Write a sequence for this structure.
């Protein structure tokens, strides 16, 4: 089958399955045999869950922290129970989904996967280190994907010495089980086949892929995060209370969530890291991170995940 025809069929099947119930059937066949997800935080866990439930692919979830893995498993069980309670999934299928996901602290387990998605914190040096390890420890034909929100894919690929052409970005949105769009980004070195394999896999996960250029923040965060930062500057300069800021954007501008609640949900450390990448890589003062945002991260007030942000959780 020609590549174009295959892509069209994959998209068509994906679109048809999108109308079907969440559930028990894979959206479209994927030739991925095992996925490894590095980082079991909110994004890594969401990716693992959707890969297991939608694409029916076995997943190895890797984290350096036993505590994070424990939290992830607890949260996974809660999400599955919720789906069963809402009638979105049978008990049997939730067990099947759960059983396809295994957790480990052993990085070398990436070797068994043919598709790897990195979802560790938005720290450039950390991602570069992981991709340099992947170049030697991953299978020779595995796709090496990053979920970075803003870091250059070309730079991440450059760290994967000898495997540069297999590096791509599959930028899932939060919460992964809910948001349909996935931003795909190639580095200068990415082979067209790598992009195609990424497109096929996210489609098999029931997602709608779109392609963005490799530029700071890509498309989604280039537009979204400066908006969140501006809302925080409005709060720090006393233009409104947090409730007023969130209320006018929700009730006046039809945003599904207020910007401060959304920043808390994303994670204030992640928002700050993205603003820093935008600011330092463009040198444009319009991307200056809010002083209040910086201070809140310094205080360890990271939003929902730490229990305190603009709101208490
Ligand atoms: N939070 C969002 O809304 C969102 C949306 C899209 C993309 N992203 C991106 O996804 C990535 C992950 O974000 P998150 O919100 O899930 O972060 P998080 O802080 O919730 O989770 C990160 C996880 O990585 C683990 N980790 C740290 N170092 C590691 C290492 N060396 N090896 C393995 N695991 C390690 C941590 O223990 C933690 O469990 C970031 O690049 C972020 O920018 C986040």
């Amino acid at each position: 089958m020609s590549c174009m025809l295959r892509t069209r069929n994959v998209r068509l099947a994906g679109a048809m399955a999108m109308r079907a119930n969440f559930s028990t059937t894979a959206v479209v066949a994927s030739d991925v045999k095992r996925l490894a997800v590095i980082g079991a935080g909110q994004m890594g866990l969401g990716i693992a869950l959707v890969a297991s439930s939608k694409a029916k692919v076995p997943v190895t979830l890797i984290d350096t922290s036993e505590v994070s893995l424990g939290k992830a498993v607890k949260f996974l069980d809660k999400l599955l129970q919720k789906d069963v309670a809402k009638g979105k999934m049978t008990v049997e299928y939730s067990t099947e989904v759960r059983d396809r996901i295994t957790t480990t602290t052993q990085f070398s387990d990436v070797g068994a996967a043919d598709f790897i998605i990195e979802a560790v914190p938005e720290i450039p040096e950390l991602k570069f280190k992981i991709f340099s390890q992947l170049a030697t420890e991953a299978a020779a034909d595995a796709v090496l994907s990053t979920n970075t929100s803003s870091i250059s894919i070309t730079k991440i690929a450059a760290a994967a010495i000898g495997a540069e052409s297999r590096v791509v970005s599959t930028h899932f949105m939060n919460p992964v089980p809910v948001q349909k769009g996935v931003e795909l980004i190639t580095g200068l070195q990415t082979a067209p086949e790598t992009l195609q394999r990424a497109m096929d896999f996210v489609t098999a996960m029931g997602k709608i892929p779109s392609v963005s250029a490799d530029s700071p923040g890509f498309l989604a965060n280039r537009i979204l995060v400066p908006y969140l930062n501006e809302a925080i500057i409005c709060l720090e300069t006393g233009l409104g209370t947090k409730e007023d800021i969130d209320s006018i954007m929700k009730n006046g501008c039809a945003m599904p969530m207020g910007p401060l609640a959304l920043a808390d949900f994303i994670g204030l450390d992640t928002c700050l890291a993205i603003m820093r990448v935008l600011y330092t890589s463009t040198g444009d003062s319009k991307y200056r991170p809010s002083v209040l945002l910086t201070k809140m991260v310094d205080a360890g007030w990271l939003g929902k995940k730490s229990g305190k942000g603009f709101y208490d959780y």
Q: What stands out?
A: Residues 1-26 have pLDDT under 50 and may be disordered. The chain has twelve helices and eight strands.
